[in-house]
C-alpha cells in the first residue's frame, strides 16, 4: 500500500474491524493505534454499539477515543461522556417503528440517553437474554409505548435473532427509519438496529469534523458490515476487512486482513 495524501481523520468500526468476535485487539493493531497517536493523526470510532458499552470495551486496552455510536444517532467523547452529536427519532417515526416491530410479534429495545439507563425494554423483550445481561445496570424496564411518546429515542433494535425474522421488519420500517440487519459476531445470528431516517455513521463523522474544524474530505474509514456502507462510500479512502460483507467489499479502496490477524495495522501505510 502507498500513503494517501491529506488524511485528516481515521474513522474505524469496532466489531470485526478493530477487534475480533471476542473483543480482542490484536497486538499489531494496538501498536498501530499508539503509533497513530504519536503521529498526531486523530482517531474516531464509529460503531453500532452503545456509547457506554464501547467505552468499557475500549478502556480495557487503555483507549478512550471519541465515538459515533448507535450507527450515527449519537456522538460522545468517551473520556468525559460529553456529547458532540445527537439525532433522535421524530416522535411520529418512533411510534411507527415500534408499531412495526410489535406487528411482527417482536418487542424491541429502545436506545435512550437517560443518566441511569441506555436501553429500555418491555416485559417480554425479543432481544437475546444474553444481550440484556450484557447491558447490565444500564437496562431499564418500562412501558415502551409510553417511552416513545414521551422521551427521545435514539435507536430501536433487537440483538441475536435469525436474519429471516428481522429482515421483514427492516423492510417494513424503511419509510420511517434507516435500518440494517447485520451479522452479530458477539451474540450470534443477526442484529437489527433502526436509526432515524437519513442518519448514519457518516452524519456523526461530519458533526465531529465540524466541531473540530477537520476537513471531512480527508477521512480514511475502516469497516466490514452493512451499517458501514454510508461511511465507506463517503470516505476519501475506504478500507474493508477481507471477511467483511460483499456490499462493503465492493466499496473498498483497500482490502485488509481480518481483525483476528491485526489487519487494521495497514492503516499506518496509508497515512
Describe it for me?
The chain is of the alpha/beta class and 271 residues long. The chain folds into 2 domains: 9-86 and 199-269, HAD superfamily/HAD-like (Rossmann fold); 91-196, Hypothetical Protein, Haloacid Dehalogenase-like Hydrolase, Chain: A, domain 2 (2-Layer Sandwich). Helices cover 30% and strands 25% of the residues. It has helices at residues 27-39, 51-59, 91-103, 129-135, 144-150, 163-172, 201-212, 229-234, 246-249; strands at 9-12, 43-46, 66-69, 74-77, 83-86, 109-114, 117-121, 139-141, 155-161, 177-183, 190-196, 219-223, 237-241, 254-256. It has an 8-stranded mixed sheet, with helices on both faces. A 6-stranded mixed sheet has the order 8-7-6-9-11-10, sandwiched between helices. A hairpin with a 2-residue loop joins strand 6 and strand 7 (117-121). Helix 3 (91-103) runs antiparallel to helix 5 (144-150). The longest helix is centred in the first third of the chain and has 13 residues, at 27-39. It starts with 8 loop residues before the first strand and ends in a 15-residue tail after the last strand. The mean pLDDT is 95.
Amino acid at each position: 500500500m502507498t500513503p494517501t495524501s491529506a488524511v485528516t481523520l481515521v474513522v474505524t468500526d469496532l466489531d470485526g474491524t478493530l477487534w475480533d468476535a471476542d473483543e480482542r485487539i490484536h497486538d499489531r493493531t494496538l501498536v498501530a493505534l499508539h503509533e497513530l497517536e504519536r503521529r498526531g493523526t486523530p482517531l474516531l470510532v464509529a460503531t453500532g454499539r452503545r456509547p457506554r458499552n464501547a467505552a468499557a470495551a475500549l478502556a480495557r486496552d487503555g483507549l478512550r477515543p471519541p465515538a459515533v455510536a448507535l450507527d450515527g444517532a449519537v456522538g460522545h467523547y468517551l473520556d468525559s461522556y460529553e456529547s458532540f452529536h445527537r439525532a433522535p427519532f421524530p416522535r411520529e417515526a418512533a411510534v411507527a417503528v415500534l408499531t412495526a416491530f410489535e406487528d411482527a410479534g417482536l418487542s424491541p429495545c429502545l436506545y435512550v440517553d437517560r443518566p441511569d439507563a441506555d436501553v429500555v425494554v418491555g416485559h417480554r423483550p425479543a432481544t437475546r437474554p444474553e444481550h440484556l445481561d450484557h447491558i447490565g445496570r444500564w437496562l431499564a424496564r418500562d412501558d415502551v409505548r409510553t417511552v416513545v411518546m414521551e422521551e427521545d429515542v435514539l435507536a430501536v433494535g433487537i440483538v441475536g435473532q435469525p436474519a429471516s425474522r428481522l429482515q421483514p421488519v427492516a423492510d417494513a420500517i424503511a419509510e420511517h427509519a434507516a435500518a440494517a440487519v447485520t451479522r452479530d459476531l458477539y451474540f450470534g445470528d443477526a442484529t437489527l438496529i433502526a436509526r432515524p431516517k437519513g442518519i448514519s455513521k457518516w452524519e456523526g463523522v461530519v458533526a465531529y469534523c465540524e466541531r473540530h474544524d477537520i476537513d471531512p474530505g480527508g477521512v480514511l474509514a475502516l469497516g466490514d458490515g452493512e451499517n458501514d456502507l454510508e461511511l465507506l462510500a463517503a470516505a476519501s479512502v475506504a478500507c474493508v476487512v477481507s471477511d467483511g460483507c460483499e456490499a462493503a467489499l465492493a466499496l473498498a479502496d483497500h482490502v485488509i486482513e481480518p481483525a483476528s490477524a491485526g489487519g487494521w495495522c495497514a492503516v499506518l501505510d496509508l497515512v
